[in-house]
Write a structure and sequence with these properties.
The chain is α/β, with parallel strands linked by helices. Helix content is about 20%, strand content about 20%. The protein has helices at about 100-115, 145-150, 150-165, 165-175, 250-255, 275-285, 320-325, and strands at about 10, 25, 45-50, 125-130, 140, 185-195, 200, 215, 225-230, 230, 235-240, 335, 355-365, 365-370. The strands form four sheets. Strands 3, 4, 5, 6, 8 and 11 form a six-stranded mixed beta sheet that branches. A four-stranded mixed beta sheet has the order 1-14-13-12. The longest helix has 18 residues, at about 100-115. It is globular.
Length: about 375
Amino acid sequence: MKHFISYISILAYLSAYDSVALDIKSMASTKNRSEDFLDISKPVIMIGIMVQFLKEEVDNPKTSGNGHFLSKNLENYNVFYESNIERCDGFFVDRPPHNQKYFESQFEAVKNYYYSASNGNLSISSTVIENPHSENGYYDVANEMEYYAKSDLLLGELFSESIGLAKIDIENYLENEFIESLDNILFVVFHAGLGQDFTYPGFDPTIYDIKSAYIDDLMLDGVTKTIINGYSINKGLLLPETQNIIYYDVVEDIFGNPNSGTLDLCEIQIGMTGIFSFLFGYSIGLPAMFNTENGDPGIGCFGLMDYGSNNGRGVLPVFPNPWSRIKSGWTSNVIELNSNNNSDTIFIEPYNLVNKVFKVKITEDEYFLIEN
């Protein structure tokens, strides 16, 4: 018999955006199709690779940036884009330069998130491999960004090509760290440019930015997989250097000149932690909590594996929903409420103080989960 499980989650959360509503559009095409998950009972190792595209000598208006990573403007430390317009006079999210140290910080944020979400049960370590033959540590793929953006198959090609470029350096790292098995290693390819992951309020001309994705066997079907120490690399993550459109000229095409006073561009910035944590969730078997056929929300802002990954502008994603945490073994303190409870009022302590979930059975096959 199929069991239907509902839950109620009483949360105080930050809305995704205060002044501009943006929808995540990559969810519908990112399905949890593979069952080859990482083993969350063991430590997980994430290995990052930084790749940039063939530089656009003539700017392609259908992509963000010129194919290379963002760096500091040497004339003005606080400006990271080619514009004389001051786009934000406040805090910059995911500030360049986007180098090894920056991506190590992205790893750290996700590790801290999952340490808290798992109640200390999930152990993650990470490293970012640098290209020793490049001044900035980046690897260079063979084509411009637009080439890889046109199909899921080409996203798989970008992932596998990137791992192949770093093959020798990865194997040297594994040897130096005495790592023999790759069973619980997740490769993360960070590429230059924005992710094509959000629907903006207006026409977005950069239609050939790269979608963020959890790469699995189906996306690599037809792609030559890279072999590392005898292991065929058949899963990983594909992520941009940033989700913050404020660093690219396309922000003015979509939102207009910020000097017009119609919009504070500080308020449309997006952080990387949300989408990174969301896609990592696929790799450890967290089920999607939205309609994977059309992207319609299921539990919305109340769970990581739906629009909750975008809470706090992608900087403060909400935890996975209680059902997923229980199934993962991260929440064991489940208290069943029934007619034998002798109190008319039950105080539900905040989750961040006590990892406690209440269960109310409705029928033999259905129950509610309640948490604060």
